[in-house]
Amino acid sequence: MATPEEIARIIKKHCPDAIVLLFGSRARGDHLATSDIDLIVVSKAFRGVGFLERPVQLLKLLYREGVEAPLDILCYTPEEFERKRREIGVVREALRTGVVL
User: Fold this and answer.
1) Dihedral sign, CA of 55, 38, 81, 10?
2) Tens digits of per-residue pLDDT, 67-95?
3) Measured by CB atoms within 10 angstroms of the end CB, which terminus of the chain is less buried, N or C?
4) In the chain, what are the domains?
5) Do strands 19-23 and 37-42 pair parallel, antiparallel, or not at all (unpaired)?
6) pLDDT tens digit string along 7-38?
């Protein structure tokens, strides 16, 4: 299974401006072998792309690159991310406990 770091490298190869943030159990170090990899990806490339379509595009790209890991990906434009980081929720918690890859 691909590591979060390998997945981040692939994403950045295709979206050079991307910021990839690992959060959840893998960032905390309390994951199980069956745990998914939770990522937030921030990129200008998501502008003009529907919110639900963004992770679909990334997952297709990763699978074409041979990544076969259970993934949960949230994708934001830089502007959306800036708004979300001020709200109580997943983004704020990911910034508090996550790891930038």
Assistant:
1) negative
2) 988 999 999 999 999 999 988 889 998 99
3) N
4) 4-100 (3.30.460.10)
5) antiparallel
6) 999 999 999 999 999 999 999 989 888 889 99
